[in-house]
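Consider the subject:
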Amino acid sequence: MKTRLLFSLLIAFNSSLAGALTLSLPIQCQLGEECFIQKFVDMAPGDTYEDFRCQHMTSDKHKGTDFRLKDFTELDRNIPVLAAADGVVAALRDGEPDINVNDNPNYDPSKGCGNAVILRHEKKWTSWYCHLKQGSIAVENGQKILAGDVLGYVGLSGNTEFPHLHFQIEQNKTPVDPFTLSGMESGCGKDQKSTLWSKEAQTKLAATINETTAILNYGISGDEITDAKKARSGGYALQTLRRDADALILWVDIMGTEDKDSLDIEIIYPDNSLKIMRHEFTKNQAQYFLTQGARRMAPEWIKGNYRVTLTYRRGGKSIFTKKFDFDVQ
């Protein structure tokens, strides 16, 4: 009986979404290169979770769309957060530190949105912009805002483990999935013809929606890597290896891995010899930090340029490749 009542309420809610907003992108970055969608709205009823595509890129009761940056070093670039539609500033908060929530002993759960701006729009719509950079908010309460106005910068404030913008749309205080114009937890697999996104935004979002697995960052190290956080903070950005380094360790930070996916790693040495490694993934994960490599067996590594090709496979088929090189001196 409760399930039927919930279903009836969701149908009523979806049919009441009249006068919908038209949204532009709320972040100024190149999707798929500089920023990525880490999470969508949770569309699965109950304690399970699925995004609108019936895939796993969300978490239980997640109310918005998360646009993430590659790593912690990107905070210094001051990536603008933009108003997605005309409106008025209904509320804001600043002063929360940019720190991984796991490292913040003073975290206050009542401020999970971190530094934030909430815009009020027509027909009881509101848009939320959470986890902004401390001191970056560029608007005031009651200020009239136009779509595209800068509200602040992407940050690491509040309940977050990585730099991102949590973008949330509500009507009558109920979260709505902007990709399907459906209420949260109303079921996945909905037609995207009712999207809130403008045509320009849809074009920019298309590739990210179709493929949410991505290599966020990568690098090399001459020592064993035990701290993913250090790599994500620029600690292993080395692109030159010493000839007497104890090891040649490649690290890769990947978003959106799925069970039975694999990553092929091909390294061509300066003498054109070839080393091939493969890593197979055993479960769905929002983010996965991978290290692969070898200890030095010879007196020294071969001097010169090393070329690396990363090939990510799903169902045995390549879905993307990434190439880079580094030097041994």
